[in-house]
Design goal:
heterodimer, A: about 375 residues, alpha/beta, Sulfate adenylyltransferase, 2 domains, 6-stranded parallel β-sheet, 13 helices, about 20% strand, B: about 80 residues, mainly alpha, elongated
């Protein structure tokens, strides 16, 4: 099975005895309350999804990653993973302080050893990560909403943040044991933030044809207005897998993280996370992790050329469509027929049908999937 | 600290001239702008494949594996 990124699977989950000791002394620590997105980052660092990261980036790594997309130790990493704090809060901390990170309900979730407290330039961060300063880009907008300073340092989990879908919340050690149990040597990951249509089904099954197993790993977390609700995505996939997939060849599990819509850089980030889950291939489609027209349709394919040492292989799919002449789902490499014979699975058309309370064309979306979505009065993020 | 302090440091490596000429021919049409960037790319590939062979051990112990298997059974992922 593929090795974790950086060579070892990080585990920052403290032993029970240690956790209890810290919790008994909790009032002695200064603390920072983090938002739901950062809570997920802490969990992902803690259980190795973000291996080799062991905490939030110090200034050296922040700069190295921003400039070169590599950590100081020469391991590929596409964008900074940072913890922002206010100037006021920063002044109350010192390097080498040990602090508690609490979730939005003030529950302590991690211990952090402060290695670094530093300034950063939001414009530079936004431009280098997202390639734009346009605040219409949700990732850029998030950067400008960040607080004034960053703190870096190692973290240690003391309370596991509650999973949104506990029955589907597999950590990298768990997926790796599962793939070993199933005798899967080669596993292809499918990253998604949408319910499945037939185009998705086509690329997943095309990928599965050449490997032992398919790992469908929807992103669960903060998304932009108009994206589908997490629950809608999960229930859609459950019914699709039930009805149309060989169950011994598919694992459905969630990846709790926010969507950054960073296009090509996020494709690398998604690949690294799935590598840590034990996948040696990942499907990368058209405009992966994109938003609007901020990225070229195949920028997320090209960026992999810059990372020959990434380890996980991208299976690059160009645009796919239903060709009425071929009477099959095809892609532009294998079908000679003109565009007017194609249904391109346009998200806007699918949404229009669903918003009007109607199932999309069954040649675009399985009726069983449409039925699940239509059970929701509003299946979209508001 | 200023930006200069965070630049990646580089070392100079000597490569025989005939090999440089070979590399320049090989580089044509690849999009690499310099022999240095091409050689860096190739070396990263080579090192990555060597490291993959070296790291052939699993990411978990037998004890961890048994614990996880029970959780996977409880969740219905395995029988």
């Amino acid at each position: 099975m593929i090795q974790p990124h950086g060579g070892s699977l990080i585990n920052k989950n403290l032993p029970k005895v240690e956790k209890e000791r810290i919790l008994r002394q909790i009032d002695e620590f200064k603390s920072i309350q983090v938002n739901p997105q950062t809570t997920k980052v802490i969990k992902n660092i803690g259980f190795g999804v973000f291996s080799p990261l062991e905490g939030f980036m110090n200034e050296n790594n922040y700069r190295c990653v921003l400039e070169h997309m590599y950590l100081e130790n020469n391991v590929a990493w596409p964008f900074p993973i940072v913890l922002d704090i206010s100037d006021t809060k920063a002044k109350s901390f010192n390097v080498d302080d040990r602090i508690i990170l609490t979730d939005p309900t003030e529950k302590p979730i991690a211990l952090m050893d402060i290695e670094d407290i530093y300034s950063y330039d939001k414009r530079e961060f936004a431009q280098k990560v997202y390639g734009t300063l346009d605040r219409a880009h949700p990732g850029v907008d998030s950067v400008f909403e960040m607080k004034e300073k960053l703190i870096g340092g190692e973290i240690f989990l003391i309370n596991e943040p509650k999973a949104v879908f506990p029955e589907l919340d597999l950590k990298p050690i768990e997926t790796r044991v599962l793939f070993k149990q199933k005798k899967w040597d080669r596993v292809v990951a499918f990253q998604t933030r949408n319910p499945p249509h037939l185009g998705h089904e086509y690329v997943q099954k095309a990928g599965l044809t050449y490997v032992d197993g398919l790992f469908i790993n929807p992103v669960i977390g903060k998304k932009k207005v108009g994206d589908f609700l997490d629950e809608v995505i999960i229930k859609s996939y459950q019914v699709l897998i039930d009805e149309y997939y060989p169950k011994d060849r598919v694992v459905l599990s969630t990846f709790e993280t926010e969507m950054r819509y960073a296009g090509p850089k996020e494709a690398i980030f998604h690949a690294i996370a799935r590598k840590n889950f034990g996948c040696d291939h990942i499907i990368i489609g058209r405009d992966h992790a994109g938003v609007g027209d901020f990225y070229g349709p195949y920028d997320a394919h090209k960026i992999f050329d810059q990372f020959p040492d990434l380890g996980i292989e991208p299976i690059k799919f160009r645009s796919f469509s239903k060709c009425s002449k071929c009477n099959a789902v095809v892609n532009d490499k294998i079908c000679p027929h003109p565009p007017e014979m194609h249904n391109f699975f346009a998200g806007t058309e699918i949404r229009k049908a669903l918003q009007s309370g109607m199932p999309p064309d069954p040649e675009v979306m399985r009726p069983e999937v449409a039925k699940v979505i239509l059970q929701y009065e509003n299946p979209f993020v508001t | 600290m200023n930006e200069e302090d965070h630049k990646v440091e580089y070392s100079t490596v000597s490569i025989p001239k005939p090999l440089i000429e070979k590399i320049k021919v090989r580089m044509k049409g690849t999009g690499f702008s310099s022999v240095s960037s091409y050689v860096t790319y190739v070396l990263r590939q080579v090192l990555s494949s060597i490291e993959s062979e070296e790291h052939s051990k699993q990411a978990f112990t037998k004890e961890e594996e048994e614990k996880v298997k029970q959780r996977l059974r409880d969740l219905g992922y395995i029988d």
